[in-house]
Design a protein that fits this description.
about 280 residues, alpha/beta, Rossmann fold, 6-stranded parallel sheet, 11 strands, about 15% strand
Length: about 280
């Protein structure tokens, strides 16, 4: 058996077309959706991520406001700028690109963003809304993973899902979203003694640890859905995920590749959150 590939690029294009239609409708009503993106410092990867996010906004008809600051920007100045954007009615979403310089508290910055504009879904209040099953913004990466799982057409009710990783941005919210879909969820991590024992029982595995070849073919239940969130490099410098893709695809029923998997979906769900923010106001 060779797995069906869950093409994140293809799926994201479909969702972005829907986003563009919603953005056009809002703009026709005199309320063009707006996303403010703040970049502090010169981290090369951050510049690439921000450039991709800004372009995705422009392609979807969302007004993007990119603000770049030197790494010397003070925490107080950044918080003051966020407060001003919170009050700006033309800005519906605020994103501060991580990581921030060491002298700026990421927690303080995230909590300074109005919950109504927290399109990254990282704030404590957004996390609480997710925990309680209330409407709110979901972190973009796990939100995108759920859309990829939904694209298989498989009902998660009663299925066993294993999440490898327990970060606040992916692992924990991923587990909660799967739970909301009525899956039975197991969270594994670096202290789990026998990872394969759990994954071999799983109908769905989401690998999000940032270590290549964490999930091997003999650790996968035949026919399972495998979502690879990892971003790593192999010995040749080629981009790869947390899953041994070449061998795993011969066992899994559905599998997401790296690249062209979760990455495009993460940006796409940022656009969806921004549209939803604009529609709520």
């Amino acid at each position: 058996m060779t797995a069906q590939i869950i093409d994140g690029t293809q799926l994201s294009q479909k969702i972005r077309a829907e986003v563009a239609q919603r953005a056009s409708a809002l703009t026709a009503q005199g309320k063009q959706p707006g996303l403010a993106v703040i970049l502090v410092g010169d981290d090369p990867a951050s510049h690439v991520y921000v450039r991709n996010k800004v372009k995705a906004c422009e392609d979807a008809g969302i007004r993007s406001v990119l603000e770049k600051y030197d790494a010397s920007l003070s925490e107080a100045e950044l918080l003051q700028r966020i407060d001003a954007l919170n009050q700006d009615p033309t800005v519906h979403g605020i994103l501060v690109q991580m990581p921030l310089p060491p002298h700026i508290s990421a927690h303080k910055v995230i909590e300074a963003i109005s919950t109504a504009k927290d399109v990254d879904g990282y704030s404590v209040l957004s996390a609480g809304e997710l925990m309680a099953g209330l409407p709110g913004f979901r972190p973009c990466t796990p939100y995108g993973c759920m859309k990829m799982i939904e694209s298989t057409g498989i009902d998660l009710r009663g299925k066993h899902a294993v999440v490898i990783g327990r970060s606040n941005t992916v692992g924990k919210p991923m587990a909660l979203l799967l739970l909301q879909a009525n899956a039975t969820v197991t969270i594994c991590h670096s202290a789990t003694p026998d990872l394969g024992y759990h994954t071999r029982q799983a109908d769905v595995v989401v690998a999000a640890v940032g270590r290549r070849n964490t999930l091997k073919a003999d650790m996968i239940k035949p026919g399972a859905i495998v979502i690879d969130v990892g971003i790593n490099q192999d010995e040749n410098g080629k981009l790869c995920g947390d899953v041994d893709f070449a061998n795993a695809k011969e066992v899994a029923g559905f599998i997401s590749p790296v690249p062209r998997g979760v990455g495009p979906m993460t940006i796409t769900m940022l656009l969806v959150n921004t549209i939803e923010a604009a529609e709520r106001i």
